[in-house]
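User: Can you help me understand a structure? I only have the sequence.
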Amino acid sequence: MKTPEEILQNYYGFSSFRGLQKEIISTIVDLKQHSLVLMPTGSGKSITYQIPALIFEGGTLVISPLIALMQDQVDSLKKRGIRADFINSTVTKEKKGNRLANFVKGKTKLLYVTPERFRKQEFVNEIKKANISLLAIDEAHCISEWGHDFRPDYSRLGEFRQIIGNPLTLALTATATKEVQVDILEKLHLNKKDVRIFHQGIQRPNLRLAAKDVWGNSDKLKQILLALNEYKGSAIIYFSLIKTLEEFSEMLRTNKIEHTSYHGKLEAQRRKVIQRNFLENENKLILATNAFGMGIDKSDIRLIIHAEIPSSVESYYQEIGRAGRDGNPSLCLLLYDQQDLYTQMEFIKWANPSYDYYDRVYDILQNDADKVNSMGIEYIREQMSNKDRNDFRVETVLAMLDRYSVTKGEIERKNLKVVDKLHLNLHNKEFISAKLLNDNKKLLSIVNYFKEVKCRRVYISEYFGFFDEIPCGNCDVCG
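Assistant: Let's start by predicting it. Here is the structure, written out as tokens:
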């Protein structure tokens, strides 16, 4: 049997492990101990389950919420000669069957799936037959309602673990507070005493963390131009609103700054071209909403600017983790304009419809399904007396009904229908109020990050429950 070091050299071309990688792999392979891993974006979490997958006799099932990312990872593994595959909604029925059969027969070492796959009884019937040595759960924060990207199917992973025989489990995330960590273990039906928790902290000394108090777009533009002049190379400037992004795009054109823009309203093919061009250095500067960046494996990003404040420390931490992966100096700059708080407060309101709002939309879908599918989302808006086109509560409700498997189909394809009762969480006044309070606390956390008077790196570490950091000397507060 090859050692982890030999596999690392032969398949990945590296002579040594980074950070906590070796210790995590040893815990999984030698001690067979369940583990929860908290490591920054870009620190190499995937190797901690990919290498054990090549050592274990059985297969490794990888749960991931990101269809594009799992395809990229599988393509990368195949180029290295590693037998890996994925099953998701983009794959034909015939290929799904073949890929699942190959995994069950032991021909495939790693199989990537979304948690929604366990909704399919035919998948459940077959996956139970597989010899699964390791269950790897990527983006594990999605398990918790109190995380920043909750997905209901993730919260059922404890049930799914039981279906496949409660295998050795490795949960991985870049962002989880103490509360979320506890929730992850509970939802996976894991006893804390049986789990080794690894947390690497924000040990990225090459990242300079800074925040500037600004007033209005002209002040923001000034700070952006100064940063672009000082930190040459690839850069991402994040915006909360597409409208603001487009305004700054025009201002940068006026200043003859070459760039491109990326946001959710662009066609899928256009977004793929922009992403590829950025990776290949054809575009050095991207103006983007948070729709951009997940799965971006680019080592030489010198500059991340948040031109509008993000919704939480979690999302901020995940996005700045894309800078400086090559170890060279990089700047992570937050531009704080008090007015931008109102935008995030509106987002929070839209993301937390009241329980009676859920009731009313649910009734419309049940009683007027034909009209909904004929006239689209505007029909629901009219019935809800929703005149503000910037109010996205209807979109939130539709998304949550889908995530909780209350509905099936898509309103765009005119085949949306109710298939289950309204989930208890969406009909529970106390739960919805608690979530609203939690989202407001997350927004307050990013305000406190801006106001930090000790060290920004220490603040982030303490936010996630890491108390072993010392002042970094490389932020605008302490050095």
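Now, to help you interpret it: The domain at 207-337+438-463 is CATH 3.40.50.300 (Rossmann fold). The chain has a mean pLDDT of 91. Let me know which part you'd like to focus on.
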